[in-house]
Amino acid sequence: MPELPEIEALAAFLREHATGRVVIRSDVAAINAVKTFDPPLSALNGLTVTGASRHGKFLDVDIDGLHLITHLSRGGWLQWRDKMSPVPPKPGRGPLAFRLHLTPLPDALDGEPDAGFDLTEAGTQKRLAVYLVRDPMEVPGIAALGPDAMRVDLESFAALLAGENRQLKGVLTHQSVLAGIGNAYSDEILHAARLSPFAIASRLTEFQVSDLYSAMRATLTDAVDRSVGQRAATLKSEKRSGLAVHARTGLPCPVCGDTVREVSFADKSLQYCPTCQTGGKNLADRRLSRLVK
């Protein structure tokens, strides 16, 4: 799932490549992906892309005051096209959900092809969402977001944790508590902070809270720095290359050399290092038993 660093990088990519281009048209290949009807998507035609930004894990393309917003969910991605096919896609065929056609830039050479981007979604669970709104707060998921993980200060962060009698893994990934962090970067942050994913947030000491905040900021800042400037096509591999424990089950921890372990749930898993995070204890797979104490 694209998280804060990847969405930040996609927004930067679109600011560089899409700003100043005029919308020709949009094609919808997955009707269920479009969540709004007023204004209609046709209202974009003839308008100019003026910027792109991020709200948590939502990508926001500003088009002359209208906001084309997408949540890529678990299997979604944005693919930039320097040359767009003029043939409308057939609905329900393949991973394509949405396509936006854009003109060449105003200073382009004669004959330069139209550009644009596709929103695609892999897998059978189709959760990618597209919204066209006048105000980003009209998107329910954005209106419900907690403070952004890259903008919250330590005092506010500590107050958030103090009110959460839940496991850290769940707190870090709950978007109404803290916006932008998903499954992968929560594993990385907890590893960097040397904390168990099942530690209770409200029971952390002052020093643990400070360490967790520093680890969060450092992990996300590093990931953003590595991601911004990459083409959309290379962001996934860049993300994987920077991971210490997430998706590295069975491999050695890069800090201590212990074997990275996994806990699996119904539809996802987490990874951690026993030596770095749990005092050498293995956490039980939640599919089979309760946490080993």
UniProtKB/TrEMBL annotation:
It comes from the Bacteria. It comes from Jatrophihabitans lederbergiae. It catalyses: Hydrolysis of DNA containing ring-opened 7-methylguanine residues, releasing 2,6-diamino-4-hydroxy-5-(N-methyl)formamidopyrimidine. This is DNA-formamidopyrimidine glycosylase family protein. PANTHER family: FORMAMIDOPYRIMIDINE-DNA GLYCOSYLASE (PTHR22993:SF9). Belongs to the FPG family. Keywords: DNA damage, DNA repair, DNA-binding, Glycosidase, Hydrolase, Lyase, Metal-binding, Multifunctional enzyme, Zinc, Zinc-finger. Pfam families: Fapy_DNA_glyco, H2TH, zf-FPG_IleRS. InterPro entries: FPG_cat, FPG_N, H2TH_FPG, Ribosomal_uS13-like_H2TH, Znf_DNA_glyclase/AP_lyase, Znf_FPG/IleRS. Residues 244-278 form the FPG-type domain. Its cofactor is Zn(2+). Residues 2-158 form the Formamidopyrimidine-DNA glycosylase catalytic domain.
